[in-house]
Amino acid sequence: MPTSTNAARQRSRRRRIVAAGEQEVMFKLHSDTVALIDAIKARCGLRNRGEVLEHVNSARELLKLVEIRRETAQQ
């Protein structure tokens, strides 16, 4: 159960995110997709998985890889 201090921190954090014009999104991804994100993160020298999605070239690369995986799975 969150403490009132934790809850206050979370509210403050969410307010900062909204004030920055951003949204927090949670994804449920297959472990292969997470492995792809981690590989791109390492290759580009990014600090976290979120930066992969923010980095335009990385996001395009990820989408291509996901599409290839989807096509392979359908065959």
Rg (C-alpha, Å): 16 Å
- List the domain count as a whole number: 1
Span between termini:
46 Å
This entry's quaternary arrangement is single chain
Count of separate DSSP helical elements: 4
Order of helices and strands: HHHH
Secondary structure category: mainly alpha
Number of strands: 0
Mean pLDDT: 85
- What fraction of the residues are assigned to beta strands by DSSP? under 5%
The gross shape turns out to be elongated
Helix content: over 70%
Largest sheet: none
Low-confidence segments, given as residue ranges, are none
Short description:
With 75 residues, the chain is mainly α. The chain has helices at residues 4-19, 31-44, 49-54, 56-74.
SSE layout:
Blueprint: H1 4-19, H2 31-44, H3 49-54, H4 56-74
Helix pairs in contact: 2-4
What would you say this structure looks like, in words?
The mean pLDDT is 85. The protein has 75 residues and is mainly alpha-helical. The chain contains 4 helices and no strands. The protein has one domain (4-74). Helix 2 (31-44) runs antiparallel to helix 4.
Descriptive tags:
0% strand; mainly alpha; single chain; 75 residues
